[in-house]
Amino acid sequence: MVAAVKKFDKERLSRAILRELGKLFDDIEIVDVVVSPERDRDGDDILRVEAVFTGVLRGDDAKKVAGATRQLRSTLDEIDEDIYPLLSFVSKVDYERGQKREAR
After folding, report:
1. Domain 10-103's class?
2. What span, in angstroms and rounded, lies between the C-alpha atoms of 62 and 49?
3. How far apart are CA 80 and CA 40, in angstroms?
């Protein structure tokens, strides 16, 4: 029997991640963060994070994407959430298109 995924305060996590990511980037704005607790293939708890942004991801901001997960680890530690974040960035336009497809 597989244990249930650890329960998280999604709103608290989203706010903390949104605040941290908002500090990192210059030319994009993080407008929403969607978090989903899941399990990886090894059965460990992970946090799937979709950062929804406006603007164009390029230059220095594109380089910062690679280090963003490291930044989030310290933020999550500060609020006592010991979980590994899997971070992806999606433009607001693409996110909304995906939401419309899922609603059908």
Report:
1. alpha beta
2. 17
3. 20
